[in-house]
Design brief:
Largest sheet: 3 strands, parallel
Protein name: GTP-binding proten HflX
Pfam family, one: GTP-bdg_N
Number of strands: 3
Helix content: 25-40%
Strand content: 25-35%
Shape: globular
Order of helices and strands: EHEHEH
GO molecular function, one term: ribosome binding
InterPro entries: GTPase_HflX, GTPase_HflX_N, GTPase_HflX_N_sf
Organism: gut metagenome
Amino acid sequence: MKTSRAFLVSVIVGRVIYPDSAEELALLVKSDNYEPVGLLQAKRDKPDPAFFIGSGKVEELGEMAHAADAQIVVFDVPLSAAQQRNIERAI
């Protein structure tokens, strides 16, 4: 069985930093039988209402995820339904 490819997005919001967040996300993705194929790290003072990570980072995410031939994108922060829809449409 071929493993699906997942592109990871780790977001730091405000001043709180969780140094192992990206590594934990990779382990969670692997435990669900996905292969992590890339990582985008973003820092935000506050979430962007439309995309959480901002339109520029979403554009970068789309390019990186397509180049890595990822089937899914996994965030380490909860997205609203509108943010998820906007990101899906943008990438």
